[in-house]
Amino acid sequence: MFNVAKCALLAEMRPRDINLCVGLGSERGKLDIFPHDGLTTFLEDIAKSVNTPTDKKYTKVVLTLSEVCDKYPPPRQIYTFAKLTSRVTSGKSLKA
To answer: How far apart are the C-alpha atoms of 40 and 35, rounded to whole Å?
Structure first.
Protein backbone atom coordinates (compact mmCIF):
# COMPACT_ATOMS: atom_id res chain seq x y z
CA MET A 1 0.00 0.00 0.00
CA PHE A 2 1.15 3.56 -0.72
CA ASN A 3 1.81 4.72 2.84
CA VAL A 4 3.54 1.51 3.95
CA ALA A 5 5.98 1.61 1.03
CA LYS A 6 6.79 5.31 1.52
CA CYS A 7 7.28 4.89 5.28
CA ALA A 8 9.51 1.85 4.75
CA LEU A 9 11.64 3.78 2.24
CA LEU A 10 11.94 6.72 4.62
CA ALA A 11 12.98 4.41 7.48
CA GLU A 12 15.55 2.71 5.24
CA MET A 13 17.05 5.98 4.04
CA ARG A 14 17.13 7.62 7.49
CA PRO A 15 17.72 4.80 9.99
CA ARG A 16 18.74 7.06 12.89
CA ASP A 17 15.46 8.97 12.72
CA ILE A 18 12.18 8.08 14.39
CA ASN A 19 9.73 7.85 11.49
CA LEU A 20 6.16 7.93 12.71
CA CYS A 21 4.20 8.19 9.44
CA VAL A 22 1.18 9.69 11.17
CA GLY A 23 -0.99 12.70 10.56
CA LEU A 24 -0.97 15.71 12.90
CA GLY A 25 -4.16 17.36 14.02
CA SER A 26 -5.84 19.27 16.80
CA GLU A 27 -7.13 16.02 18.28
CA ARG A 28 -6.24 12.33 18.25
CA GLY A 29 -8.16 10.11 15.87
CA LYS A 30 -8.17 8.71 12.37
CA LEU A 31 -8.79 10.37 9.02
CA ASP A 32 -9.09 9.15 5.47
CA ILE A 33 -6.15 10.21 3.33
CA PHE A 34 -6.07 10.46 -0.44
CA PRO A 35 -2.66 9.66 -2.00
CA HIS A 36 -1.56 11.15 -5.30
CA ASP A 37 1.81 11.71 -6.97
CA GLY A 38 3.19 14.91 -5.46
CA LEU A 39 0.11 15.48 -3.30
CA THR A 40 -1.39 13.62 -0.40
CA THR A 41 -4.32 15.20 1.37
CA PHE A 42 -6.94 14.56 4.03
CA LEU A 43 -9.41 16.72 2.07
CA GLU A 44 -11.56 14.95 -0.50
CA ASP A 45 -12.34 18.17 -2.39
CA ILE A 46 -8.63 18.88 -2.85
CA ALA A 47 -8.07 15.29 -4.03
CA LYS A 48 -10.86 15.66 -6.58
CA SER A 49 -9.50 19.01 -7.79
CA VAL A 50 -6.25 17.32 -8.91
CA ASN A 51 -8.02 14.25 -10.31
CA THR A 52 -6.99 11.90 -7.49
CA PRO A 53 -9.18 8.79 -7.48
CA THR A 54 -11.06 9.16 -4.19
CA ASP A 55 -11.74 5.42 -4.03
CA LYS A 56 -7.98 4.89 -3.46
CA LYS A 57 -8.05 6.34 0.07
CA TYR A 58 -6.71 4.74 3.23
CA THR A 59 -7.02 5.58 6.92
CA LYS A 60 -4.20 7.37 8.73
CA VAL A 61 -3.75 7.65 12.50
CA VAL A 62 -3.78 11.29 13.61
CA LEU A 63 -1.93 12.46 16.72
CA THR A 64 -1.55 15.90 18.25
CA LEU A 65 1.83 17.57 18.05
CA SER A 66 1.83 17.62 21.87
CA GLU A 67 1.48 13.82 21.93
CA VAL A 68 4.42 13.40 19.57
CA CYS A 69 6.61 15.81 21.55
CA ASP A 70 5.67 14.16 24.87
CA LYS A 71 6.38 10.65 23.60
CA TYR A 72 9.68 11.46 21.80
CA PRO A 73 11.46 14.09 23.96
CA PRO A 74 15.18 13.18 23.80
CA PRO A 75 17.57 16.01 24.69
CA ARG A 76 18.10 18.46 21.85
CA GLN A 77 15.51 16.64 19.73
CA ILE A 78 14.95 18.21 16.33
CA TYR A 79 11.57 17.55 14.74
CA THR A 80 11.49 17.42 10.96
CA PHE A 81 8.24 17.03 9.07
CA ALA A 82 8.33 15.47 5.63
CA LYS A 83 5.16 17.30 4.78
CA LEU A 84 3.10 19.82 6.68
CA THR A 85 0.04 21.28 5.06
CA SER A 86 -1.85 23.57 7.38
CA ARG A 87 -4.82 23.87 4.99
CA VAL A 88 -5.61 20.23 5.72
CA THR A 89 -7.10 21.17 9.08
CA SER A 90 -7.25 24.94 8.67
CA GLY A 91 -4.08 25.31 10.71
CA LYS A 92 -5.36 23.15 13.57
CA SER A 93 -2.29 20.90 13.52
CA LEU A 94 -0.08 23.93 14.07
CA LYS A 95 -2.36 25.20 16.84
CA ALA A 96 -2.28 21.82 18.60
So the answer is: 4
